[in-house]
Design a protein that fits this description.
CATH class of the largest domain: Mainly Alpha
Helix content: over 70%
Largest sheet: none
Number of domains: 2
Structural class: mainly alpha
Number of helices: 9
Strand content: under 5%
Number of strands: 0
CATH superfamily of the largest domain: RNA polymerase sigma factor, region 2, helix turn helix motif
CATH architecture of the largest domain: Orthogonal Bundle
Shape: globular
CATH topology of the largest domain: Rna Polymerase Sigma Factor, Chain: A
Distance between the termini: 44 Å
Radius of gyration: 21 Å
Length: 210
């Protein structure tokens, strides 16, 4: 594959990391994440204007880039490709958010003179119903939770530990980093890989269900 001859030294270095990442080198993923996580985050934050959303979207952007790393072409710098993925991800997020807002307004209007307070009241009622499912729903939720834990138990020890700490114990990335005494970038990069493996295992399991 021909590399763009106009690449800067930084772009050439990124390409070397990409090649290593394509060959399964996790340290390469971590280095790419560390190089761009702040710049991607601040670009995303500028677009969505919400720190929690910006953090989630930044993680999603890297996840999409890393899952599709084989599709990267050195015709363009890795940074250009990554920022495009992050930007498109934000645009999709904002579009979905706008659609949800319009749906809420539409539902309110179709009810006649429904006030926004009543809309929020309906949402609160739905939340309470979700928090207190009927017995049949409780059994289904318990079964799904048990299946998820069973699948997680089959992950490699480090990946299993990260998934459990992040999603079962609900620790933040910073708390996981401190608890395991590893860099924050490494935590995020390995969680990307953990989620990908978990998704593949769940997909394979569901494919064999009757």
């Amino acid at each position: 594959m021909n590399v763009n001859p106009d690449f800067s030294d930084k772009a050439k270095r990124d390409y070397e990391l990409v090649v290593r990442a394509q060959n399964g080198n996790e340290q390469a993923f971590t280095e790419l994440l560390s190089s761009y996580k702040d710049s991607i985050y601040f670009m995303v934050l500028k677009m969505v204007k919400s720190k929690p959303d910006a953090e989630d979207l930044t993680i999603e952007a890297f996840g999409k880039a890393f899952r599709n790393i084989e599709q990267y072409s050195p015709e363009f710098a890795f940074s250009t490709w990554l920022f495009k993925i992050a930007s498109n991800n934000c645009i999709d997020f904002l579009r979905r958010k706008k659609t949800r807002q319009l749906d809420t307004i539409s539902t309110s209007a179709s009810d006649g003179e429904t006030t926004m307070g009543e809309v929020f009241a309906k949402e609160a009622t739905m939340a309470l119903k979700y928090d207190a499912p009927d017995p049949e729903e409780s059994i289904i939720l318990q079964q799904k939770h048990a299946m998820l834990r069973e699948v997680v138990a089959n992950l490699k020890p480090r990946y299993r530990e990260l998934i459990e700490m992040r999603y079962f114990d609900e620790l933040s990335y910073e708390e996981i980093s401190e608890k395991l005494d590893i860099p924050l970038g490494t935590v995020k990069a390995q969680l990307f890989r953990s989620r990908e493996l978990l998704y593949e295992m769940l997909k394979e399991r569901n494919a064999h269900l009757p």
